[in-house]
Amino acid sequence: MPTTEIIALHPLASSDNDREPQGKAANGTDGTVGDLSESDGLQSCYYGLRVEHPHTLDALITWNDAYAHDMSHLAYLVAKHYPSTLFSKHHVEFEPFSEYARAVAAPVTEVATLYYDGLPPADCMDGLREMRQVFVDHQISGWLALAAGLTHEDVEYEGVEGKAAVLVIGWQSTEHHLAWRATQLYADTLHLWPRGAKKLEMHHTAFRPGNNILGGSTLHVPIGG
Q1: Which region among 7-11, 17-21, 81-85, 103-107 has the lowest average model confidence (pLDDT)?
Q2: How far is 34 from 214, CA to CA, in rounded Å?
């Protein structure tokens, strides 16, 4: 089953602003992460800066399965190229996968992570599937796609450590998402998806496709902050 490697680098150093990729990492001649198109098992790569935190880079790299690449080596090279104070990665099998592909290709993607102490409840994914059905049945304005999955690894966030559930929801704009959150239907169905989560982190990222996260196109990172 396709496995998506989720990498976050934050904050990007101001020296990364309008940086011109240089050396082997930029032109792919080192045969590693400079150009992922040569990687066996690669399905897709999307990356972008967070709307709320423009110094944070998100990368979603999907492989044929969890064993299609050397995950630790890839993550290390990405972190080495972008000097950062914090770095995180985990792996998720999103379902339905066709919806994942649509969600990350949307103009803006809501990325929500639900953190649990230990394991999430057995009905966690059932609630997320029910939430998706609400979107389908009511054809929520501006909504394009929704997929969800559980992390392979235990992750830690603000003192909570265990498996996490990750949702990616494609929207036509952040304004459409905010408008949805102001509806009564949102309030009436909110209980479907937290299901025992101790912490929630949510942000929006405008992803773009590309096999070369380290070069090939410039990321415009604001100076300061």
Answers
A1: 17-21
A2: 6
Query: pTM of the entire structure?
Result: 0.81
What does residue 7 show for φ and ψ, rounded to 5 degrees?
-120, 135
Query: Quick check: helix, strand or coil at residue 50?
Result: strand
Cβ-proximal residues to 60 (8 Å cutoff; 6+ apart), any chain? 4, 5, 6, 7, 44, 45, 46, 47, 104, 168, 207
- The verdict on residue 167 lying in a domain is yes
Q: Where are the alpha helices (H) located in the chain, listed in sequence order?
A: 23-27, 71-81, 97-104, 124-138, 174-181, 184-189
Question: What is the tens place of the pLDDT at every residue in 16-49?
Answer: 443 333 333 333 323 333 456 556 677 888 989 9
> How many residues are listed for the chain in this entry?
225
- Domain total of the chain: 1
CA dist., res. 29 & res. 72, Å (int): 20
Is residue 108 scored above 80 in pLDDT?
yes
The rounded mean pLDDT for the chain is 79
Query: Could you tell me the residue range of the domain that residue 10 belongs to?
Result: 3-209
